[in-house]
Write a structure and sequence with these properties.
Length: 302
């Protein structure tokens, strides 16, 4: 029995459904079902009764929920105690991040952690999703902070959702589409687009137009550089689809305009991705908790 199994059980108990809990965590439904069954086998009791609309806890499941909740609360308190005595904390943390987070929240996450734990060395590597997943498998990074792919993750990885990314189409204030009237998907299909060059991004981009029964536009510029995408939008009259977190500064300065397209924003989840069944060091878990707390604060502020 490990803490992840306890978290999974609590999620199923509180959601009253394996499928809803799997979506919330997120994890594949078969993997979550296996985890619950292994837990029941280890305890030697049935924790949940399955029915057409979901699950309900058995009497043993009710008691186990209280124990599981208390255990996780105690672990959380233990981590807080470590923070309070963190002056002597030392070691090295290696984390991978997607470009979006390197531009936005990582400065705050790393800066605040270093101020509290000056003896800890942090190595942050920026990479594309495929690179981050491979880095986890090779043991080159311990955690990855990134947006989640449209498709399911490999079964060897576990995703923990921490925040939502809301993406909109942006143009410069000088662009013909930047007027006050509502813009249609057909109108933006005729504009020049700059887009992220990853397969999952391309598939999601094309699906936006196909869902409107409109042929996807030609994308003359593809890149893995968020800085280039922003520059092409602001200075070269292109249109691009980006998370609002990345464009907040330019929006406030008035250099770009967010288009009021029907069906936007496009929402995706983001957070931590780790290797399944990996035994993270206490220092790494402490840093992961700091990431969780920071992301929660950012979500509340929004």
């Amino acid at each position: 029995m490990d803490l992840r199994q306890l978290r999974y059980y609590i999620a199923v108990y509180e959601q009253g459904s394996v499928s809803r809990a799997a979506s919330e965590i997120p994890i594949s439904q078969p993997a979550l079902t296996r985890s619950i069954r292994l837990l029941e086998n280890e305890l030697g009791v049935s924790l949940l009764q399955r029915h057409a609309r979901g699950v309900i806890p058995t009497s043993a499941g009710e008691r186990f929920y209280r124990h599981a909740y208390r255990i996780l609360a105690d672990c959380s308190q233990a981590r807080e105690d470590i923070r309070d005595a963190g002056d002597s904390l030392s070691g090295e943390i290696v984390i991978g991040v997607a470009a979006l987070f390197a531009y936005t929240v990582m400065e705050r996450i790393v800066g605040e952690f270093c101020e509290k734990h000056p003896e800890v060395r942090i190595t942050v590597t920026q990479g594309l999703l495929g690179d981050l997943l491979s880095g986890l498998e090779r043991g080159e990074i311990e955690l990855a902070l990134c947006n989640f792919p449209v498709q399911s993750l490999p079964h060897t990885h576990v995703a923990e959702a921490l925040m939502e990314l809301h993406s909109y189409a942006y143009v410069s204030t000088e662009h013909p589409l930047a007027g006050p009237s509502e813009v249609t998907w057909r109108a933006v299909a005729e504009a020049r687009w700059v887009n992220f060059n990853q397969p999952h991004s391309q598939e999601a981009f094309q699906a936006l137009f196909l869902n409107q029964n409109i042929a996807p536009p030609r994308t003359p510029v593809l890149t893995n550089s968020l800085a280039l995408i922003k520059s092409m939008i602001i200075r070269r009259g292109f249109i691009g689809l980006l998370p609002e977190q990345l464009m907040a500064g330019e929006t406030a300065q008035g250099s770009i305009v967010r288009l009021a397209l029907p069906g936007t924003p496009i929402t995706r989840r983001a957070g931590l991705i780790t290797l399944k069944d990996s035994n993270r060091r206490p220092l790494t878990e402490l840093f992961a908790d700091h990431i969780r707390a920071t992301c929660r604060e950012i979500q509340v502020m929004r």
